[in-house]
Write a structure and sequence with these properties.
- The complex is a heterodimer of chains A (241) and B (208).
- With 241 residues, chain A is mainly β.
- Chain A has a single domain, classed as Sandwich (Protocatechuate 3,4-Dioxygenase, subunit A).
- Chain A contains two helices and twelve strands; from the N terminus they run βαββββββββαβββ.
- In chain A, strands 2, 3, 4, 5, 8, 9, 10, 11 and 12 form a nine-stranded mixed β-sheet that branches.
- The two termini of chain A are 16 Å apart.
- Chain B has one domain: Protocatechuate 3,4-Dioxygenase, subunit A, CATH 2.60.130.10.
- In chain B, the strands form three sheets. In chain B, strands 4-3-6-7-8 form a five-stranded mixed β-sheet.
- The longest helix of chain B has 5 residues.
- Classes of the chains: A mainly beta (241), B mainly beta (208).
- Chains A and B meet through β1, α1, β3, β4 and β9 of A and α1, β3, β6, β7 and β12 of B.
- β1 of chain A pairs parallel with β12 of chain B, so a sheet runs across the interface.
- Bound molecules: fe (ii) ion.
């Protein structure tokens, strides 16, 4: 199959719309005019690349990458999966960044005021680059749920934030991973910005006993899908290609 | 019923939330010692070709308040109009230029800043040249899916007039929302690109 065509159109009915009043902050931060659509040019079909050389040994180990005088408190987990495109192919050499609260639901951030304590041994950020088959993995502490100012009693389900680069700026994506079986998922106004229940289930990582390390860490499997690309077989080639 | 196509659906976007800087620019928010430096801080790695410029701006919400929890990324060609990406098969871009910048904005003012070079022109699919531009991507708390836009250059009237995207914008009064005026600061050319999420001067955002 020959690659090189435009990226498939984003399904705006699958993604959350900009204006979602149940998530109050979106009210003044949502564009109100129609988006301007145009076919990808080379500006959107290219994107930054990151070599494996930028990745330090502990970058994908949140249990150790901020440890000062011991290991962080909480349930040890491995998160693994593949970055795929919509054609089902693994996306290699793709930078994946992740951040999260600690086991008590507290972020290491100046503006965070939740009463749960900071963990002196937990920073809450990591990154990795996908392998040839699009696979990635990291080790961390299962994050806690936390309350947030929206309604008088809104809580976020346990989640991990992901930032993903594909091979093109058109594929740039930020999303969140939830945990199988968490009843808080269905009570969260941010989750509820996604109109399609199936889309929410696709963001929910499955408990993966086969990849669990016995007597050490449980595993969750989380695949991430980026936009796929048309074949150029029947499309005019870009100049110079 | 018919056969199934077997395509996967793109993972749904979720807001970057208030703590996107923890994950993307941890050193900026005082999580030190995990990564040696924040990615995207430096776009120029050495003796770079082209005119050095600075891009600054703020992101405003519908009440005119600047965001202080946004993350802005830019992607652009080098001075010769080549992208430092293996997907650009037209040639090899300047090896001292990354093409990609990321800014968490100033903690007090929310102002983002990129020290970069002025990009050259790149072709559209039909071969016509586009005006010099920078692709911009904005995420923040309250933004459910990253916003794509473009910055064009205020001192490129002729190129802007024939740009295939600018010239097809139906509401001409909105075109200036994509064009950054050129000023100067300490002898350095500065382009100011303010982004308005809502209101009469709402920036044009793209579905690309
Ligand atoms: Fe969060």
């Amino acid at each position: 199959m020959s690659d090189g065509g435009s990226y498939y159109q984003r399904d705006r009915l699958w993604h959350p719309p900009a204006y979602t009043p149940g998530y109050k902050t979106s009210v003044t931060r949502s564009p109100q005019r129609a988006l301007l659509s145009f076919d990808n040019s080379i500006s959107e079909m290219t994107g930054p690349t990151f070599g494996h050389s930028i990745i330090g040994e502990l970058d994908n180990d949140l249990i150790l990458n901020f440890a000062k005088d011991g290991e962080p408190i909480g349930q040890r987990i491995i998160v693994h999966g593949r970055v795929l495109d919509e054609n089902g192919r693994g996306v290699p050499n793709c930078l994946v960044e992740f951040w999260q609260a600690n086991a008590g639901g507290r972020y290491r951030h100046k503006k965070e005021s939740y009463l749960a304590p900071l963990d002196p041994n937990f920073g809450g950020c990591g990154r990795t680059i996908t392998g040839e088959d699009g696979s990635y993995r990291f080790r961390t502490i299962q994050p806690g749920a936390y309350p947030w100012p929206n309604g008088p009693n809104d809580w976020r389900p346990a989640h991990i934030h992901f930032s993903v680069f594909g091979h093109a700026f058109a594929q740039r994506l930020i999303t969140q991973m939830y945990f199988e079986g968490d009843p808080m998922i269905w009570k969260c106004p941010i989750v509820a910005t996604i109109p399609d229940r199936e889309a929410i289930e696709r963001l929910t990582a499955a408990l993966d006993m086969n990849n669990t390390v016995p007597m050490d860490s449980r595993a969750y499997k989380f695949d991430i899908v980026l936009r796929g690309r048309r074949s150029t077989l029947f499309e005019n080639r870009m100049e110079g290609n | 019923m018919a056969q199934t196509l077997g395509h996967l659906k793109e993972s749904a976007s979720q807001t970057a939330g208030p703590y996107v800087h923890i994950g993307c620019t941890p050193n900026y928010c005082e999580i030190e010692g995990v990564f040696p430096e924040d990615l995207g801080t430096r776009m120029i790695l050495g003796d770079v070709k082209g005119e050095r410029i600075r891009i600054v701006g703020r992101v405003f919400d519908g009440t005119g308040t600047p965001l202080k929890d946004a993350l802005v990324e830019i992607w652009q060609a080098d001075a010769d109009g080549l992208y430092p990406s293996p997907q650009d098969k037209r040639g090899t871009a300047d090896t001292n230029f990354t093409g990609w910048g990321r800014s968490p904005g100033d903690m007090q003012t929310g102002e983002f800043r990129f020290d970069t070079v002025k990009p050259g022109r790149v072709p559209a699919k039909n071969g016509a040249l586009q005006a010099p531009h920078v692709t911009v991507w904005i995420v923040a708390r309250g933004i459910n899916i990253g916003l794509h836009t473009r910055m064009y250059f205020g001192d490129e009237d002729a190129a802007n007039a024939e740009d295939p995207i600018l010239s097809r914008i139906e509401h001409r009064s909105r075109v200036p929302t994509l064009i950054a005026p050129r000023t100067a600061e300490d002898g350095m050319p500065v382009y100011r690109f303010d982004i308005r999420l809502q209101g009469p001067d709402e920036t044009i955002f793209f579905d690309i």
